[in-house]
Design brief:
With about 270 residues, the protein is mainly α. About 70% of the residues lie in helices and about 5% in strands. Strands 1-2 form a two-stranded antiparallel ribbon. Strands 3-4 form a two-stranded antiparallel sheet.
């Protein structure tokens, strides 16, 4: 029996260090909800989950891009519906002006409304969405997936550079005479045909964006499930481990206290 070293206490101390570390690790996992608290817990899993997390962030950003593009297209189509209604009324007015039973005074009254409707189209051509022109010849390009793939929405040009619409909105067009009404009817009909094409293009953009939105939703769901499988802690299993380490920690602490008492038994050998 020696008092210079206490191997039992040293062994119990080492066990206590290990159980305390395991208890702390288990507690950290349960409190964070993550199986990987430190890089050494699972270096490979951590690398994979980091890549998945980055892709999820990109996918969420792309979903935001798609949502904005959808709003842009919906706003475009909303205004184009008003243009369609305006052109339909203008074609109706042109036809009324071609009625031989009407006088030029009657045609002047029709022309007053016709001119106001031209102004309406010109006003719509200047509309913007968050500072971006809704109706210009330039296409609008956005990245719509997590890999940054671009999607370009072709421009819908209602401005003065559009020959078709400009023929309707130019200052000289009118229906105050039968000759002018004949010309106006022709250019309005051409504009209606062009508008049908433009709205079809907008509809194609909307369909593509709707599909992109559904794809991103599926991508986000899949990668969330994948990263959850890698990172999220199994609460039931880890709770069992926590209970185990907690009991071992308490037991080892008690044994260390007992081991520290062993050298005191030497005192019994000393003479009184």
């Amino acid at each position: 029996m020696t008092i210079g070293s206490n191997l039992a206490a040293q062994s119990a101390s080492n066990d206590l260090t290990r159980t305390s570390a395991a208890l702390t690790k288990s507690l950290a996992k349960l409190s964070s909800g993550s199986r990987i608290v430190n890089a050494y817990d699972d270096a490979g899993g951590l690398a994979i989950s980091m890549r998945f997390d980055a892709k999820l962030e990109r996918a969420n950003a792309a979903k935001n891009n798609v949502s904005n593009a959808q709003s842009f297209s919906n706003t475009q189509d909303g205004y184009l519906k008003r243009v369609a209604k305006t052109l339909n009324r203008m074609s109706e007015l042109a036809m009324l002006s071609l009625d031989g039973t009407k006088s030029d005074a009657d045609r002047t009254l029709y022309n007053n409304e016709f001119v106001q409707l031209k102004t309406n189209i010109t006003s719509i051509a200047d509309k913007e969405f968050n500072g971006v022109s809704l109706f210009s010849a330039s296409s609008i390009e956005s990245a719509i997936d997590s890999e940054g793939s671009p999607f370009a929405m072709s421009g819908i040009n209602l401005g003065t550079t559009s020959t078709t619409y400009n023929a309707v909105t130019q200052g000289s067009s009118g229906i105050s005479t039968t000759g002018a009404a004949t010309t106006a009817l022709s250019v309005v009909r051409t504009a209606i045909t062009q508008l049908a094409t433009d709205r079809a293009n907008v509809g194609a953009n909307q369909s593509r964006l709707n599909m992109a939105s559904e794809y991103l939703a599926a991508t986000i769901e899949s990668f969330m499930a994948a990263t959850s499988a890698i990172k999220d802690v199994d609460v039931a299993s880890e709770s069992t481990e926590f209970s185990k380490q907690n009991i071992l920690n308490q037991s080892t602490t008690a044994m260390l206290a007992q081991a520290n008492q062993i050298p005191q038994s030497v005192l019994r050998l000393l003479p009184q």
